[in-house]
Structure formats: C-alpha cells, structure tokens
Amino acid sequence: MKYKEKLIENFFKFCASITIFTTIGIIAVLLFESISFFRDVSIFEFLTDTQWTPLFSEKHFGILALVSGTFLTAAIAIAVALPIGLTIAIYLNMYAPKSFRKTLKPFLEILAAIPTVVYGFFALTIVTPFLQTIYPDLETFNSLSAGIVMGIMIIPFISSLSEDALYAVPKSLKLAAFGMGSTRFQTAFKVMVPAASSGIIVSVILAISRAIGETMIVAIAAGQQPQLTLNPTVPVQTITSFIVQVSSGDAPQGSVEYKTIFAAGLTLFLFTFTLNSVSFWIKKKYQEKYE
Amino acid sequence: MNNFQKNKLIDHSFKILGMLFTFLGILILAILIYNIVKVGYTRINWTFLTSLPSRKPENAGIYTAIIGTLDLMLLTVLFAIPVGVGAGIYLEEYAKKSKLSSLLEINISNLAGVPSIIYGLLGLGVFVRFFNFGGSILSGSLTLSLLILPIIIVATREAIKAVPHSLKEASFALGASKWQTIKNVVLPSSFGGILTGIILSLSRAIGETAPLIVVGAMAYVPFVPQSIFDTFSVLPMQIFNWTTRPQQGFAIAAAGAIIVLLLITFVMNGIAVYFRNRWQKKLQ
C-alpha cells in the first residue's frame, strides 16, 4: 500500500520534471547547433552585418536584417492592438452593463482561438488587396498588412489581461473616485489605470513577446526578403519566417543553411525569454500590492 | 461650455469609442468568416473531403490532411494528457513550498511564452535527429505534446484549486490515503475544469502549423500514413501550402480547407465553454 502510494507520487513527480527537461532541451538544442554555426561565422559579422543571405551563393549573416523585420511587424501589431485592446478593457470594466460584458468577452476571445494560418490567408488575400485600393503602391507582400492582422489577433490578449488587472483593483478606490464627483472617464484614467498599471504593462509585454514569435501570418503575408528597413509597404522577413523558409526547403543536416535556423532561433528565444522574465518579475513584485 | 459639461462630453465620447472598438473586433471576425466562406464554400462537398491532394487545384482534396490531423491529435492526446494532468496534480497536491516547486512554477510560465516555432526546433533537434524518428507523425505529436503541456498543467491546477478543502478533509478523515483521495474526490470534482483545459489545448494544437513545418510535415502527401513513423500532412499545413501557390484555384481550395479547420476549432471551443459553464454551476 505504502509502496503504491510512493510509486504514484514518483510518477507525478516525473511528469512535472518533464517541463524542466523541455527547457533544458530547448536551450541545449539551440546552443549546440548555434555553437557549431559560430565556428563558421563570426559573432561580430552576425551582429553587425546588415545583410542576411545564407541561401545565396554570396553569403551574408547579418541577423539585424531579420531582427528589423521582426520588430517592424511587431511594432505595427502593438500600435493596432494596444489602443484598441486597452480601450475595450476600460469600456468593459467601467462602462458596459454586466450582461453585455458576459456575452461580448467570449466573442472577442474567438479572435484569439482562430489558427494563425487562417489569419495569414486573411492578410494576404483580403487585407492587402483592400489596403492596395487606398494605397496603390503597396506591394503584394508587406509588413503593414501582416502587422495589422497580427494586431487584430492580439487584441483579445491585451483586452482580457488588462481587464483582469482592472477588475483586481479594489472597489473602494473606484467608489472613492466616484464619491469625489469624478466621471467614469476621470476615474478610469486617473485612478483605475494607474492602480492596474503593473497588470496592464504585463499584458503589453506578453503581447509584444507573442508578436515577435508569431510565425504563420508573417510567413504568408510579409514576404521573404530580409532587409534593414522601416518602410511598412515593402516585403521584409522576420526571424520566424526565415526558419519556415529554410524548413520548407531541404537544407542538408550539417550545412551552414541548416545551422542558421538554430542561430536565428536562439536570437528569437533570447528576446522572448527576456520579455517573459521581465513580465513574470513585474507580476510577482506587484501582485500582492492590494492583498 | 463649463467644466462639468466638458467632462460629461469626454466621458460620453469615450463610451462610444469603447463600444465602437468592441464591435470592431466582432465586425472583423464577421468579415473574416464571410470572405472565407464566400470564396471557399463551392469546394465544400464530399469529394473535397475524400480526395487526395493533387497538382490540379480543382481535383485537390484534404483527405490525407484530415487523416494526418486525426492521427496526430490521437497521439498527442495519449502523450500530453497523462503527463500534463499528472504534473498538475503533483504541483497542487504533492509539491511542498520549496525552491524546487517555485522553480517548476517559473519554468512552466516561461514555457507557456516560448514561441511555437522554437518548439519546432526542439522537436527537430531531439525527436527528428537525436532519436531518429524522422519527420514522422511520432515526432510531430511529441513536439505538439510539449507545446500544449503548460496549458494542460495550468488548467489542471486551477481546477484542483477550486475543489473545496472540506471535501478533501472529509476523505482523509475517513481514512483514505492521498492517492485514494485524489482518485475518488479531487479528480471527479475537478473533472469539468480539467476537461475544458484539455479541449482548449487540443484546439490550439489542431491549428498549429509552424512547429510542424520545422519538424518536417509535408505539404504534399499523396497517401494515407500507415504507421506512426510515416511522413504526414495536417490541415493547417495544407492550407499554408495552397495559400502560397500563385494559382487562384489553390486559393479557393485553401479557403475550403479553412472552413473545415474553423468549424473544428469553433466546435471544440464551444464544447469547452459548455463544459466550463456546467462545471462552474456544479461547483457553486
């Protein structure tokens, strides 16, 4: 009996430890192949060269060209999602009737449940042609359309998490502001948003991390031309869509092309890991403020 | 206009803006679905569902993609559910407050934020190359299992947390052991919450494309996989491939496949919401 109890506990412990092995596995795989990559390519070139052409005969390995595409699309996405998402969060928390909130929230959350490949199709075949009617010089593949659609995808992400943060603010603060004669708008922006700021910042950081790691929308709609540019109307390539491009072809194992995806992946992992850690730290630090 | 009226006006304008943005989100959802259905509905018929992929768009079907998706999900369920639920039980019921348990917690929250394509690279390095499973269904489902593990663990923990303490104490008072209590009291009363989490995580897995491309899922599989070591395609992979082709016929086929994928996703989310509501009512 006792033996059986111990066995079961150990099985559960093993299950939990798989998550640790996953992290170790990710870091090991990325480091192992990247070290081998950096034997062929100097880190200096990797960080300073402005061209990224590992698949051409004249090879350049400047990750900046991919990083710029990654951050350009992510910045457009956040520019769309932050104002809309935050406004929705404040509206649902301060203005909307309770029943309204209950029916609308699941609808918004459907936006987050749609597979990203579907959003990619939407960006390429619907949003880009529509934007071209307004701005004819927009190229078929561009970061604008990909960024906007990615922004739409992360709206519920920001609105849900920010709404949770607003909801956690003690009612007494809200009532005190109303008691002083503040309007809902004044209460929202002078009391609620500052009080919930750590939660809102966490939601934005997580949204940025999501946007940086998003793959299918940019792989389909943003193009495959790595270039150091801030122009949203021309094709760019992100870190993620480069990995997709190489994986869709057949780069032989051990070749430089094969190793580049791990070096690119390591760069991406470092970005998202930093963002996630910062958000976790903020959450832990400010979580118990009102408890 | 005095200050009072000005503040009132700002307040009211913001309310309208908030309403507009909320409906904008829902409007975009409607536009997306409308446009895809408009393009793709002509392909929705039995032949499309039961035809192999083809180089001619009008003959192309999604049979191998659907079978591939089903096979992959079946294996993913087999791997991810026991491990995910087990890890959740361990963290809630067994783990003591220690450095190790807080490390596990930080680690899981970090894993939830790792981009899916990185899981693809993990799968490529570990399952495809190191264990030599190749670009097979087995590699794909192991990779997806690791990807959805954090979701299942978090859902399991939330569900177990919601079980009233009194129930557990009653069970212990009757002389039940820890495992007996978990098996007979904790799991049955948290079942609804765990099930919701599992369905949502599977609905996520069904839509994943990026990690499977890296692991080596094929865009063109003209046969039904016979074993877990065979190459495979899945619905999102087929959609991605058709979307990137220049012929209009493939765009229509892609829209058709998207309708099928969205239907599956929406049904799964609907079922999850249904179970969640029923379970929450039962808890109260």
UniProtKB/TrEMBL annotation, chain A:
Summarize the protein's role: Part of the binding-protein-dependent transport system for phosphate; probably responsible for the translocation of the substrate across the membrane.
User: What topology does it adopt in the membrane?
Assistant: Multi-pass membrane protein
What NCBIfam families does the entry give?
phosphate_pstC
Cross-referenced Gene3D superfamilies: MetI-like (1.10.3720.10)
Its family? Belongs to the binding-protein-dependent transport system permease family. CysTW subfamily.
Segments crossing the lipid bilayer: 12-32, 61-94, 106-131, 143-167, 188-208, 261-282
Q: Name one GO cellular component term.
A: plasma membrane
The name under which this protein is listed is Phosphate transport system permease protein
PANTHER family annotated for this entry? PHOSPHATE TRANSPORT SYSTEM PERMEASE, PHOSPHATE TRANSPORT SYSTEM PERMEASE PROTEIN
Q: Which Gene Ontology BP annotations are present?
A: phosphate ion transport
Protein origin, superkingdom: Bacteria
CDD domains, per database record: TM_PBP2
Location(s), subcellular? Cell membrane
| Species name | Gramella jeungdoensis
From TrEMBL, chain B:
The UniProt transmembrane annotation reads: 16-37, 62-91, 111-131, 137-156, 210-229, 249-275
Q: Name one GO biological process term.
A: phosphate ion transmembrane transport
Subcellular location as annotated: Cell membrane
Q: Which InterPro entries match?
A: MetI-like, MetI-like_sf, Phosphate_PstA
CDD domains cross-referenced by the UniProt entry: TM_PBP2
A GO CC annotation recorded here is: plasma membrane
Q: Which Gene3D superfamilies did the record assign? A: MetI-like
Residues covered by the ABC transmembrane type-1 domain: 66-269
Q: Family per UniProt?
A: Belongs to the binding-protein-dependent transport system permease family. CysTW subfamily.
Q: What is this protein called?
A: Phosphate transport system permease protein PstA
- What's the gene? pstA
